[in-house]
Amino acid sequence: MAVASSSVQEWVKSSVIANGLAIVTLDRPKALNAMNADMTALYKKFLDEWSGNNKVHAVLVESSSARAFSAGMDVKGVAAAVQEDLHTPLVPKAFGNEYKLICAIAHYPKPYVAFMDGITMGFGIGLSGHGRFRVVTERTVLAMPENGIGLFPDVGFAHIAATTPGHGSVGTYMAMTGAKITTPADALYLGLGTHYIPSTKLESLKLALLHSDLSSNAFHAIETLLDTYKVEPETEPLLKPLLPAITACFGANLSVANTIEALKQHQVSADSAVASWAKGALAGLAKGAPFSLCITKHHFAAVVVARANADNDDLSQIEGVMRTEFRLGVRTSTRPDFIEGVRAVLIDKDQKPKWQPGSIEDIDTGDVKAVFAPFETPADELMIPDTVVL
């Protein structure tokens, strides 16, 4: 599964402008900028170099294509490697590279601006959602669809979701159902975006960034510029009036079975908007692997509690979340559900995966807890570089 270094450099391009703006351009449009392990490593290499370069004052991340910022990890490549060798080193490499990069982005010492134009899913959210400035457009489509391929919503999304409305319920709803966020108003409501700027203004915004004085206070200069270009969404958030229902169905204290039961009750609500939403949420859950749904619920609830208590719990910090997700990623990607999910959704596209186990009722809670346990060998854990700025 090795990728030629020349291809990686073509897919992840970098440049540094005279005013100190460094730019990462994702340029793998045929794959919707799906990120493989080598692309991720190169991306982090750029960020690490710029972090200590006094001539670089800010970072802009963009796509060469209007269709997608990034659709996520190159899961087909990982699945193919796992099929060849269940113990392939690509698995820890792919997840490890992603999660180390996310930690670097979350604590980046310089302004980090992401143009989240087009499809921004999975690792696409990981590359943007942990950054300081997150620009969404009317073309932005946000989603975490990993349960549908037998994995789980990773890339530290649980860390982000815990801060969403309803004490994290809206983010948990998005993660468990794979629901797509398609309006700028909802992207801002969830906190996934910081600024809504129409796509027609992106080019002029980029030119303004290229000519801005970033030498003294780059954070202030960029925020002022983004505030100048941003506009208010033309509509109200679709999810805001649904918040009571979302909280009642996706609260941290509810199990997957509780959530399904609550949604069935809301499906017959006299409020047609609530009933329609509940029906859609149930359909989203039905697409997910039962084991993945249970992992997701357990993980997201634990992070919500940890962040709410603001204690020394490892899960209250992004590094702790990433260490846990590394265990989950390594273990779920070698379960039969992952290969089957990729086959059904991305290869054969019959949309009829045969999950193991096949229902929520058949899930052993001991098996769920086991994937969260530390590895027997400490050296197998995710090692996050000490160079991350805290």
TrEMBL record:
Keywords for this protein: Hydrolase
InterPro entries: ClpP/crotonase-like_dom_sf, ECH_dom, HIBYL-CoA-H
Membrane spanning residue stretches: none
Domain Enoyl-CoA hydratase/isomerase residues, every copy: 22-372
Keyword Cell cycle in annotation: no
Enzyme class: hydrolase
The enzyme's E.C. designation: 3.1.2.4
Catalytic activity entry: 3-hydroxy-2-methylpropanoyl-CoA + H2O = 3-hydroxy-2-methylpropanoate + CoA + H(+)
A Pfam family reported for this protein in Swiss-Prot or TrEMBL: ECH_2
Source superkingdom: Eukaryota
Family affiliation: Belongs to the enoyl-CoA hydratase/isomerase family.
Biological role: Hydrolyzes 3-hydroxyisobutyryl-CoA (HIBYL-CoA), a saline catabolite. Has high activity toward isobutyryl-CoA. Could be an isobutyryl-CoA dehydrogenase that functions in valine catabolism.
Protein's UniProt name: 3-hydroxyisobutyryl-CoA hydrolase
Naturally occurring in which organism (per UniProt): Sphagnum troendelagicum
